[in-house]
Structure formats: structure tokens, C-alpha cells
Task: structure prediction
Amino acid sequence: MRELAPLYPKPIATKLLPFTTFYPAEAYHRDYFARHPEAPYCRLVIAPKLEKARKAFKSLLRP
Result:
């Protein structure tokens, strides 16, 4: 972390805590990409990221 010292003179004080409550997404948010693959956000943002992940982790994915 030494290399960040000039950018952040004070110590970073973020707490990492385990979550205690899980709130499921509303129904209209669930499976959005599967239901709307033609949506611009899905085509331009999600699809390229999924393709990159599939290539990077090919050996870990089921055929």
C-alpha cells in the first residue's frame, strides 16, 4: 500500500463486515439479462463481460 500513500495521506478506514440480512431482488430485476438480451445495456455491457469471463474461466465452466 506504500505506493498509494501520496494519493491518500490518511489511513483508509473501511470496515469489512459479514452481512447479516439478505434481501432478494424484486421480481422484475431477477434474470434481467436472460429476459432482455436485446436491451442496449445487456448487449453493450453485460454480454461482453460474460464473454470475457467465459474465456478467462473456461476450464472451470461446465461444457
About this structure: The two ends are 40 Å apart (CA to CA). Residues 31-63 form one domain.
